[in-house]
Specification:
A hairpin with an 8-residue loop joins strand 14 and strand 15. The strands form 3 sheets. This protein has a 12-stranded antiparallel β-sheet with strand order 1-6-7-8-9-10-11-12-2-3-4-5. It is of the alpha+beta class. The protein is elongated and about 75 Å long. The protein binds zinc ion.
Length: 519
């Protein structure tokens, strides 16, 4: 169902513009006429859809997991600009292992002007043409896979009603590129948005299977991809043009009841700060709190975060002439920088040489740009290497970060096999790849045999209290974790979770067995 049109991009030939390309104003005007949008101010459409969770795939080389959106509906007012999309989700919770209902609600208002939100209005085929008419666009002819397009490009400075569109954090204007086919229909729109892990992230939306409603053309099929995999898919079943109830459609309902909010909220898997996308609204994550460190053993520190609930901790381990960090770059660049700064404060005389990530998920890699900028070798199983290298090697011009400024090339060590040992005269640290874990391939735990300390991420959540109820059915990750510790015969006294538990504490093998009802 996904057209490979762009992923392959087999033959792209740029034609001599004089003969082929029409005047850009004519191209935009003709397409607007063909699409029937000249008197379109707002639109409401509905159908069935699905959201893909960017950066949360179970294997770094496979598509983002999709969550169906039932009763998908979206209203857009191009004049404000504003948009609201709604839907119902039903998915197995990673926390309870039960099917839980959830609500999807994406609201874009003139007040949340960040491109991460606003782009969803301007990458629609109708929004693209309206923005193209309001900005200084250029056109070129291009043939893709034997099909001829007029490709219209422009920096987005104005919305459709000449509202100013803010530039990127780095001061660059955002860009839109649209592919208009021989019938004047917009088949593809591209833009780029800053992302702490992926850099200048290409957002590509394909519109196919056009239908007609009283002169308005709309695509029955929408596929949006980010970092190469779909983050949104929809079958549009019907549209309303300039709906009289547009303001009502744009008005968000009261907040979801707590039970639904909890079902849609943080489990062991989702990012604490989910990336914006068709599936997500929301703004920039709050600045990370100051890290604090806690000595677990001589030369072994938990680099923590306050307040601790749901926070991400790193583990810093001292060797004779360097330091190793486990989970060095979660969440975002600021968090990665804070972990590095705190580690340097604890070990002022030794360089941080290795940064071992627990797994490739976006909430555990969002701060890796800071790690790469520091010249730290990122260590992960081979299955994740190319994925991380690709993301950290992308241009970072929209929001130049420490990595962009350092000019450094990321160094990623992909180790093969199920084990990687770091050892010198003073310390031994073992990495073990978990087997049989549904959550992520290439998830590693770090084990210090002498200190009997083990650290992990995203395998399970214990009940709120060690004495709390045993989840029924048991959380699969917990079973896998316990089985792996047994299989590897690890002698563990204290277990550190990257995600702080509630209440915050280290746990033991006995706690985990108890949570499974095992002795
Ligand atoms: Zn994860």
């Amino acid at each position: 169902m996904i057209r490979k049109w762009g992923a392959t991009l087999l033959v792209v030939s740029l034609m001599a513009s004089s003969a082929a390309a029409q005047d850009v104003k004519t191209v935009i005007a003709n397409a607007s006429k063909a699409m029937g949008i000249d008197s379109l101010n707002s639109i409401h459409y509905y159908g069935s859809a699905a959201n893909g969770n960017l950066g949360q795939n179970n294997n770094a080389n496979q598509p983002w997991p999709m969550t169906p959106l039932n009763d998908y509906s979206r209203a857009i007012d191009f004049t404000q600009p504003a948009s609201r999309a709604t839907g119902l989700t039903l998915a197995v919770s990673v926390v309870t292992s039960r099917l839980e209902p959830g609500v999807f609600n994406q609201t874009i208002t003139p007040a949340n002007a960040a491109w991460a939100q606003q782009l969803e209005i301007w990458v629609t085929p109708w929004g693209f043409l309206k923005a193209a008419a309001a900005n200084a666009a250029t056109v070129r002819a291009q043939t893709v896979d034997g099909r001829r397009y007029q490709v219209v490009s422009f920096d987005v400075k104005n919305g459709a009603s000449s509202q100013a569109v803010p530039a990127s954090p780095g001061g660059r204007p955002y860009r839109l590129v649209g592919y208009i086919n021989g019938q004047g229909l917009v088949e593809r729109v591209q833009t780029w948005v800053e992302n702490s892990f992926f850099g200048d992230l290409l957002v590509e939306s394909d519109y196919t299977n056009y239908r007609d409603y009283n002169g308005l053309k709309y695509p029955a099929t929408i596929v949006q991809t980010r970092a190469g995999w779909p983050t949104f898919e929809a079958q549009i079943l019907g549209v309303y043009v300039n709906p009289p109830n547009i303001q009502q459609l744009l008005t968000a309902p009261p907040p979801a009841p707590p039970v639904l909010a909890a079902a849609a909220g943080r489990g062991v898997a989702p990012a604490a700060a989910p990336p914006p996308g068709p599936g997500r609204g929301g703004g920039a994550p709050p600045p990370p709190p100051t890290p604090t460190s806690e000595k677990l053993a001589e030369g072994v520190y938990r680099i923590s975060q306050n307040p601790s609930a749901g926070a991400y901790s790193a583990l810093a381990v001292e060797f004779a002439d360097h330091v190793l960090l486990f989970e060095p770059g979660p969440q975002n660049e600021a968090r990665g920088l804070a972990i590095i700064a705190e580690t340097k404060r604890v070990f002022p005389k030794k360089p941080i040489r290795y940064g071992v990530i627990s797994h490739h998920h976006l909430d555990h890699t969002g701060g890796l740009a800071a790690v790469a900028a520091e010249g730290i070798t990122i260590v992960t199983p081979q299955v994740n290497k190319a994925y991380i290298e690709r993301a950290l090697s992308a241009p970072r011009t929209l929001a130049p970060d420490s990595l962009a400024k350092s000019g450094k090339k990321p160094v990623v060590e992909g180790f093969t096999g199920d084990k990687r040992v770091f050892q010198d005269a003073t310390r031994t640290v073992e990495l073990h790849v978990m087997k049989g874990l549904p959550h992520a391939d290439g998830n590693v735990v770090v084990y210090l045999p002498k200190e009997k300390i083990l650290a992990y991420a995203d395998m399970f959540n214990l009940p709120n209290e060690a004495s709390g109820p045993v989840p029924d059915p048991p959380v699969r990750g917990t079973i896998v974790f316990a089985d792996n510790i047994e299989r590897l015969k690890l002698d563990v006294e204290r277990i550190m979770s990257v995600h702080s538990l509630v209440p915050d504490r280290l746990t033991s093998v006995a706690d985990i067995k108890a949570s499974l009802g095992r002795k």
